[in-house]
Design brief:
The chain is 39% helix and 17% strand. It is α/β, with parallel strands linked by helices. The mean pLDDT is 96.
Length: 451
């Protein structure tokens, strides 16, 4: 598709949005949403004809890019054949999507409970863990995001939890490993791993292991900063869970389906959880879909005992048909392998090269098509470019950086003092380099705020 200008149509879309749409995570009178006219591949455009390279993949979910013709065709075909059907029945796209997902999940995570998205997947995973163990508590990490529904937001470890923190009974937060901003005063990854595991063990001891149903972790935390855990950490958590009879839940909503250069990031660490949540990349977000992959032991809990949970649109045929088509496209086009390669040969080296030239870059970290750039005022002290959870004038440096990205045709993922490079997993080498060039120019703006 070729962008073309139609400002009048754009104005009408914007007017209707401002009159009637209530946006998430926003002060409604302070936002100015871009009116989007279309999208294809790694790009989208507005009604004024401005085209943007999307380094956000929507909300890190368009893993195969926008409007992939095979997935669009699969949705259209399914709509003509069976547009919807209740979840209590066996229907072909639901069965096939579950089979294809189970083939790719690690270990014996062979039963799939479908939801409408990632937050509902987390809700149900925690419910399953509590029912399976008969215990009330859930441990989760600071610097995490698990969704916006009641339980999911309470296990979340970022500031979006604060205004919703009225249902936290049974939720305990702990510090996960993050060497660049270590809470354990570590100087090496090995130290960070050992000290983070000791901290978790201490937390469990003081909370009472017999009261803890589950530990939930993002395999690689996403929105909170793409902090890849050090070698041995997730294996250590697995051992702790086994020793205390705690259910280990990995949240792969953002990291799953090729984003890290593997089908699931758990493969990267050779760890098998008891429950694993997914969404986003399972069908590139074309139709809302998420789910929980369930181990044989936990699934057996509900062989004779009804599972007290369900959703009207669980395993919706259109969403599942999109998932089937997406997984097949990823296989046929080797998109998972491409994500690994583009990370190793273009994104990783390119971002590290930018870090050498820009004093505003404190650290670059990531894998596959999943990268974070930590922006700082001072490299020596590692003072963030803006304060934690900054707004308004306190966030001026990051606002200027984001505006510079957009001026250069790049739509950036900006959170706190970071920008994330999370393009579609099938982004081309030329597109990735185009994005790096736009980041280069925008980082020069960020450099102006350093000391």
């Amino acid at each position: 598709m070729t962008p073309h200008a139609d400002p009048q149509a754009g104005a009408a879309v914007k007017a209707a949005d401002r009159a009637h749409v209530f946006h998430s995570w926003s002060a409604q009178g302070l936002i100015d949403p871009l009116a989007v006219a279309g999208a294809e591949g790694s790009y989208f455009w507005d009604y004024d004809g401005n085209r943007y390279l999307d380094f956000t993949s929507g909300l890190v979910y368009t893993n195969i890019g926008y409007q992939h013709p095979k997935v669009v065709a699969a949705i259209q075909e399914q709509a003509g054949r069976l547009a919807t059907f209740a979840p209590a029945f066996a229907v072909e796209p639901r069965s096939e999507a579950a089979r294809l997902i189970a083939e790719r999940t690690p270990g014996d995570l062979d039963k799939i409970f479908f939801t409408n998205g990632g937050a509902e997947a987390v809700e149900n995973a925690i419910r399953m863990a509590r029912l399976h163990t008969g215990r009330p508590k859930v441990l989760s990490a600071y610097r995490s995001y698990h969704g916006g529904t009641a339980t999911a937001i309470n296990v979340t470890g970022d500031p979006r939890r604060w205004a919703n923190d009225n249902g936290t009974a049974g939720v305990v937060h702990f510090w996960g490993p993050f060497l660049y901003r270590s809470p354990f005063y570590s100087s090496t990854q090995a130290e960070e791993c050992a000290r983070a595991l000791t901290h978790l063990e201490d937390t469990i001891a003081f909370e009472g292991p017999q009261t803890i149903a589950a530990i939930i972790l993002e395999t690689i935390p996403g929105t909170a900063g793409i902090m890849t855990p050090p070698p041995g950490y997730l294996a250590g958590v697995r051992e702790i869970c086994d020793r205390h009879g705690i259910v280990f839940v990995l949240d792969e909503v953002m990291a799953g389906f090729g984003r890290t250069g593997t089908w699931f990031a758990a493969e990267y660490f050779d760890v098998v959880p008891d429950l694993m949540t997914f969404a986003k990349g399972v069908n590139s977000g074309y139709v809302p879909l998420g789910g929980v992959a369930i181990s044989a032991e936990i699934a057996a809990t509900f062989d004779k005992r009804p599972y007290p949970g369900g959703l009207t649109y669980s395993g919706h045929p259109l969403a599942c048909a999109a998932a089937v088509a997406t997984i097949k496209v990823m296989e046929e086009e080797k998109i998972v392998e491409h994500a690994a390669r583009i990370g190793e040969t273009v994104l990783g080296p390119g971002l590290r090269e930018l870090a050498q030239r820009h004093p505003s870059v404190g650290e670059v970290r990531g894998t596959g098509a999943f990268w974070a750039v930590e922006l700082v005022r001072d490299r020596e002290t590692r003072e963030p470019l803006v304060p934690y959870n900054a707004t308004g004038e306190a966030n001026a440096a990051m606002a200027a950086f984001g505006a510079a990205c957009k001026k250069n045709g790049l739509w950036p993922f900006v959170n706190m003092n970071r920008t994330h490079a999370v393009p579609p997993c099938n982004v081309t080498e030329a597109e990735a380099k185009e994005g790096l060039a736009a980041l280069d120019a925008a980082l020069s703006v960020a450099d102006e705020f350093t000391v």
